[in-house]
Every structure is written in structure tokens, then in C-alpha cells.
UniProtKB/TrEMBL annotation:
This is ABC transporter ATP-binding protein. InterPro entries: AAA+_ATPase, ABC_transporter-like_ATP-bd, ABC_transpr_LolD-like, MacB-like_ATP-bd, P-loop_NTPase. GO terms for cellular component: membrane protein complex; plasma membrane. Keywords: ATP-binding, Nucleotide-binding, Transport. It holds the Pfam family ABC_tran. The lineage of its organism: Bacteria, Pseudomonadati, Planctomycetota, Planctomycetia, Planctomycetales. One of its GO terms (molecular function) is ATP hydrolysis activity. SMART domains: AAA (SM00382).
Length: 236
């Protein structure tokens, strides 16, 4: 469970102080699928970075279960992310000189899994996302939508309990967008906690709860009644 307690985040831009988040209080329960929406520059990515242990708040506390994330040293936060979280970015962050298969294997390699186990799991996920015939292609040889599918497979390969996604459907073709959103639906059915920052109304509509962030002010819109709630079986 995530919990924000009176969290404020200031940063400096061109000599001026900007408030990205102002006195936010929030609880995200295990297994919830949450969309954060709002205009550009409203603080959505900042919010995601705070949840992910990548950006310290100016004031307030960010909790994951009973752990105050920013009371941990940087090294411990890194371990927490690698063990509990998976990230999906609009920019993909694929290694350009590695194949699709090798990119997906990276998290498993860092965990010390055998080469055979790495390959089996990576091939399984890439095939699930319609990329069985693209295993040996490098990112430059893939479409934007295919690159996002590879990035999503890399996120899911080590079975994270929490998925944090920043504009995961931005600039995707309809087919790739549906693949990504179907994967989030499946992860939600498995009881994973999902937080998605998005401008895409279709993506936001798939979440079970909507938050609106505008000028640093967080508003909880509550349950998304267009979304079908699935029984939760596993906790974050």
C-alpha cells in the first residue's frame, strides 16, 4: 500500500520556485489500478517519481507498506525498486545495441538467473505481445509500438508487484495501445498495483480509480464506473 502524508514538492526553474505537488494526502491500496490525469506541467510525472523512490519530497512522507521510502538510503531505495516495482516510460529506455530478447533479459540477468531461464521467460513475454518474430531485432529495427511492447515485456519479466507507468500509450498505434492496456488489465486481475500517468482518455478509462492533478493540487475522483473491477488475489 502506498501512502502520502502532506507531501509537497518544490523545484527551481529559471530562478523561480515551482510547486509540483502541494500538501498531498493519498492512499493507494494493494491491487488498485489508478490513473493520474491532468494538463501538461501539472506535476503528474513528479507524482510518479515520488511513488517510485526516485525524487525526494520537499516536505512530507511517502510510505510503501510500513516503510518510509525517503528515510531509506539511496542504495536501499534502489533495492526496493528492483524487488517490488516495474517502470514503463514513454521513452522506452531500451539499450540500442541489444536485441529485443536481450533487452528483456536484462532484469533477470541482474538477478543472477541462468541464461536458459532468462531466455525462456523473455521469449514467453515477447511472444505474448506479438513479437515472436522480432526477438533478434534491435530497437532501431522496430516500430515505436513494437519498442513499447519490448519495454513492457522488460518491465513484467521479473514479476513486479507494482507497475508505475508514465504516458505508456503516448504516440502508439491503436494495435500497440490495445496490447499495452490489455497487459495492464491482466496485471490488475492478478492483483498487482498499477499507477498510470496519462493524457489518453482510453487508457484512463481502463483504470478503476482516477486522480486529477492540476497546478500541484491532487483531487481524488474516486471509482471509475466504466471500469470492471476484478477480484484481487495478490498484494503489492
Amino acid at each position: 500500500m502506498f501512502r502520502l502524508e502532506n507531501v509537497t514538492k518544490h523545484y527551481s526553474r529559471r530562478g523561480e520556485t515551482v510547486t509540483a505537488l502541494r500538501g498531498a494526502d493519498l492512499t493507494i491500496s494493494d491491487g488498485q489500478y489508478v490513473a493520474i490525469v491532468g494538463p501538461s506541467g501539472s506535476g503528474k510525472t513528479t507524482m510518479l517519481s515520488l511513488l517510485g523512490g526516485m525524487l525526494s519530497p520537499t516536505t512530507g512522507k511517502v510510505w510503501l507498506d510500513e516503510t518510509s521510502i525517503y528515510d531509506l538510503p539511496v542504495s536501499a531505495r534502489s533495492v526496493l525498486r528492483s524487488q517490488r516495482m516495474g517502470f514503463v516510460f514513454q521513452t522506452f529506455n531500451l539499450v540500442p545495441y541489444l536485441t529485443a530478447l536481450q533487452n528483456v533479459q536484462i532484469p533477470l540477468c541482474l538477478q543472477g538467473q541462468s541464461a536458459a531461464d532468462q531466455e525462456q521467460r523473455a521469449v514467453e513475454l515477447l511472444a505474448r505481445f506479438g513479437l515472436a518474430d522480432r526477438l533478434q531485432h534491435r530497437p532501431s529495427e522496430l516500430s515505436i509500438g513494437q519498442q513499447q511492447r519490448v519495454a513492457l515485456a522488460r518491465t513484467l519479466v521479473n514479476d513486479p508487484r507494482i507497475i508505475l507507468a508514465d504516458e505508456p500509450t503516448g504516440n502508439l498505434d491503436p494495435e500497440s495501445r490495445e496490447v499495452v492496456l490489455d497487459a495492464f488489465d491482466a496485471a490488475h486481475r492478478e492483483g498487482r498495483t498499477i499507477v498510470v500517468v496519462t493524457h489518453d482518455p482510453v487508457a484512463a478509462g481502463r483504470a478503476s480509480r482516477a486522480l486529477t492533478l492540476r497546478a500541484g493540487e491532487l483531487t481524488d475522483s474516486g471509482a471509475n464506473h466504466e471500469h470492471h473491477e476484478f477480484p484481487q488475489r495478490r498484494s503489492a
